[in-house]
Amino acid sequence: MKSIHKFSAWVVLICGLSMIPSNFLPVWQIQLEAPQYPEGLKLEIWSHKLGGDVDKINGLNHYIGMGLIKEEYFSEFKYMPYMIYAMAALSILVFIIRKRLFLWINSLYLILCGVWGVYDFWQWEYEYGHNLDPHAAIKIPGMVYQPPLFGWKQLLNFLAGSFPDIGGLLIIVPAFIIVFVLFYEQYLRKEKIA
Amino acid sequence: MNKKIFKSVLTITGVITIAYFMFGCKPKKVDSAISGNAAEKVYVAPGKKDELYLFTSGGFSGQIGVYGLPSGRLLKEMGVFSADPQTGYGFSEETKGMLNTSHGWVPWDDSHHPQLSKTDGNADGRWIFINANNTPRIARSSLSTFRTEEIIELPNCGGNHASPFLTQNTEYVVGASRFSVPYDKDGEAPIAEYKDKFKGTVSFVKVDPKSGRMNLSFQLLVPGVDYDLSRAGKAKSHGWVFLSCYNTEKAHTLLEVGASQRDKDFIMAVNWKKAEEYLSAGKASTMPVKYAHNYWDENTQNTISEMVNTVNVLDVKDLPGICYYIPCPKSPHGCDVDPTGEYIAASGKLAAVVPVYSFSKILKAIESKDYEGNFDGIPVIKYESALKGEVEKPGLGPLHTEFDGKGNAYTSFFVSSEIVKWKVETQEILDRVPTYYSIGHLCVPEGDCINPLGKYVIALNKITKDRYLPTGPELTQSAQLYDISGDKMKLLLDFPTVGEPHYAQACAAEKIVKNEKRFYKLSENNHKYVTKLEKDAKVVREGINIHIYMTSMRSHFVPDNIEGVKLGDVVYFHVTNLEQDWDVPHGFTIKGASNAELLIMPGETQTYKWTPDRVGIFPFYCTDFCSALHQEMQGYVRVSPSGSATPIKFSTGEETN
Q1: Nearest CA to B75 among B507, B502, B497?
Q2: Residue pair B609/B97 in contact by the 8 Å Cβ criterion
Q3: Interface pTM, i.e. ipTM
Q4: pLDDT of residue A194
Q5: Residue B651 to residue B177: CA distance in whole angstroms
Q6: In terms of CA atoms, which chain B residue is nearest residue A135?
Q7: Separation CA B329–CA B657 (nearest Å)
Q8: In chain B, % of residues over pLDDT 90
Q9: Which residues contact A145 (CB under 8 A, 6 or more apart)?
């Protein structure tokens, strides 16, 4: 098993540790802006709970017959914190063992978590955007209210924006760096030695 | 640097750049900055007068707000359905009767739609009418005195919302029920039997062209849906009234869902000339009801309050040719007729288009019986047969439309909080401006007339949020003034309003100013308790009632020392203001009175009822700063124990003995 450079191990450790605060910070945010909401509304998704203007948003959503957004409907909140701790734990393991194989495991886990996270988020957005009460007050034929996965999208009078929050950035940026370190260890460093 | 390192760094930079642009790619908001010379356009220099009067409904204040435009300066809050302590309206003995109803004395209501009286389809500046939504009533206020002169209650009605809308010569004030209820004579019914037992009515209140006196001429008995808003036809459609109807589902609970199910509700077209024909042909029946009719008698300066016990009714399902339904998308709200009388714009609150109907097409469809069926016995005209065209993708939550007389229409959009300008003939959208926030009605001065003054449009907003200094949980409602003289609408001014302005109407100031009353002539004052000369002032005991015939003049009352009142007496101060000049009212109040003040105009007599609650000396004084010696305008009443021997005594300027 190939060892990794000491500096790389340090980078992975710091990246892994920096993911821990994500369990105490909002990970993702959905912003809503409308003419009569110039200050905007914000739905915060934490690893273990919802935050922000959930009640206000639920109050508005009932017009279009969107389902209630309630914490207990999302089983993800029960295990997501452990997923994040696992990310940190793997990085610590990489630092201690300093083997490339473990860096591979760490990186693959991060990538899998990322893919799963995007899919899970998308399917919830799809569910809330499409599964509307047929007796809703406002029914616009063909209109769905699926928020964007990332970026801005106009939904009736609301401009909806979906972006990582501070906690999310503390996962995404270090994850990118760890994968880059693997890339470096696998290809660049080898060439350099040769 | 190694090529691959360079490449990977480039890739990462690329990803970050794309992410950055997606953050940055936020759609731009419409520019809300006001144009450079807006201040100049709304500045009315001190001492100069505004060019227009704006009358806003008070909503839950029950009153009418009077403003000058373009400055947005508040001139008056006119007492209509709510007792008004600052003028004594509803507190003086003379005006208490104005608030009588069949439910007793009702000192508050919810007023929505001011309507200026019309002659030949244009505002004539004589009266303003407004509805009471809660305890169904229509009021008429004079624009020469800015006082409410008449209030008539509407029987067989719940929620007088589609009201009051005037025909083009003020022949009728029309009011229709928003909340259907069983007829008054039928009393109660299980609410679950809404569909069979609950009915709507459209009341036609005839207006005397000279005196303005109202009279409930007849009521149309119509299906039990919710009648929301209305406009009378004008010019070529004179003789018709158009009403929007929602809840054609006839839901009686959770209407926000239950009344939003059908794709189309209705506009109801009413041929009132036909109804008049049936009425004069004796086709009306009389229905027992009980409603109050209160009107001001100028001569005796008193309210005459009567209870009326019958009403003429015409059942439209038995009398063909009066009513027709026209399908209209999704819970229509506003239903507005253009200046030519040919086009009717209707706004479904939840609809994706604004349909524009053609009056000639409606007539043709009726002639050729182009119906798709009937609803509760009333023919339903085919949508396409009545339609001129649709305004497509107009905005969200269309509510109301006004017109500028230059072929353009202005529609308010509550949900997307904007005004959209479109061409009536082609339904093409020309311009849109944001409002701050959630506009309800809008008003073009004389915008419902044959000749609108298409210079401004005023947005009437429900939410102000961050627009003004905050005042706790409850914030002011507001109005915004836009210049519509050019192609683009331009925001000029934003001002807070009293109460909630639902609808407002504005008209040229000169139409009103020319009729202005400056004071009441003392020689024409035939009040039962008038005192025209100071020497005639007196105090008269009639059993436990004490009548004080009092005068006020800068800066004294006659009499100002009064004795002989005993605990248990009821005291009536009949105060006559002897002044005969403009802007010299005198006020009157006395310590401990469970009443407001009186504000007595020159030449007028008003009565203050006071029941002393204890023995003592009670000061009274003038509450309106009338003169340099206003602070000296005061007096005393001595209240002695009941059964005491204190004789009646009164005087001014001498020792009582």
Answers
A1: B497
A2: no
A3: 0.75
A4: 41
A5: 56
A6: B257
A7: 81
A8: 91
A9: A64, A66, A128, A129, A132, A155, A156
* CA-based nearest residue in chain A for residue B439: A36
Contact by Cβ (8 Å): B90, B80:
no
List, in sequence order, every beta strand (DSSP E) within B484-544. Answer: 490-497, 504-508, 538-542
pLDDT at B22 exceeding the cut of 70: no
Distance CA B344, CA B402 (A): 11
Q: What value, to the nearest 5°, has the Cα angle with vertex A26 and ends A23 and A32?
A: 160
Instruction: Give the minimum alpha-carbon distance from B234 to chain A in angstroms, rounded to a whole number.
Output: 34
The region that residue B386 occupies, defined by phi over 0 for left and psi between -120 and 50 for alpha, beta otherwise, is: alpha
pLDDT, tens digit only, all 194 positions of chain A: 788 999 999 999 999 999 999 999 999 999 999 888 888 999 999 999 999 999 999 999 988 899 999 999 999 999 999 999 999 999 999 999 999 999 999 999 999 999 999 999 999 999 999 999 988 888 877 888 999 999 999 888 899 999 999 999 999 999 999 999 999 998 887 655 44
Q: Which helix (H) or strand (E) holds A124?
A: helix A100-130
8 Å CB contact between B485 and B548: no
- Tell me what the mean pLDDT of segment B420-440 comes to: 96
CA distance B221 to B378: 12
Contact status, residue B504 vs residue B441, Cβ threshold 8 Å: yes
Cα gap B464→B6, rounded to integer Å: 54
| pLDDT higher than threshold 90 for residue B4 | no
- Taking the domain B525-651, which CATH number applies? 2.60.40.420
Reduced to 3 states (helix: H, G, I; strand: E, B; else coil), residue A12 is helix
Q: How far apart are CA A157 and CA B398, in angstroms?
A: 13
Give the phi and the psi of residue A180 in degrees, each rounded to 5.
-65, -40
The predicted structure's pLDDT at residue B320: 97
- The mean-pLDDT minimum among B17-31, B523-537, B544-558, B611-625 falls in B17-31
The verdict on B31 touching A (C-beta cutoff 8 Å) is no
| Confidence (pLDDT) at A139 | 80
Task: Give the Cβ contact number of residue A74 at 10 Å.
Answer: 16
HSE, side-chain direction, 13 A CA sphere, residue A173: 15
- pLDDT cut 70: percent of chain B above it: 94
Token duo for residue A65:
């017959």
CA torsion A9→A10→A13→A18, rounded to 10°?
A: -140
Kindly determine whether residue A38 and residue B437, on different chains, have CB atoms separated by under 8 Å. yes
* pLDDT at B30 (0 to 100): 56
CA–CA distance, B449 with B121 (Å, rounded to integer): 5
Question: What percent helix, strand, coil does chain A show, rounded to 5?
Answer: 60, 15, 25
For residues B317 and B376, the answer to whether their CB atoms sit within 8 Å is yes
pLDDT(B29) > 90 = no
* Closest among B383, B313, B377, B374 to B351, alpha carbons compared: B383
* Average predicted confidence (pLDDT) for chain B: 94
Residue in this structure with the two tokens 């109803």, named with its chain if needed: B101
Structural domain boundaries in chain B = 50-513, 525-651
| Closest of B281, B282, B306 to residue B296, by C-alpha | B306
CATH code of B50-513, in short, is 2.130.10.10
Structure token pair of residue B92:
């003086």
Confidence grade of residue B5 (pLDDT, cut at 50, 70, 90): low
Query: For testing the chain B interface, which of A64, A157, A193 should be mutated: the one with the most B CBs within 10 Å?
Result: A157
Cα separation, B645 vs B657, whole angstroms: 15
B5–A139 CB contact, under 8 Å:
no
Please tell me which of the candidates B27, B435, B466 has its beta carbon nearest to residue A38. B466
- Residues near B99 by beta carbon (within 8 Å), at least 6 away in sequence: B81, B83, B90, B105, B106, B107, B151, B294
* Mean pLDDT value of segment B466-488: 95
Residue B550 identity (one-letter amino acid): M
Domain ranges for chain A, please list them.
6-193
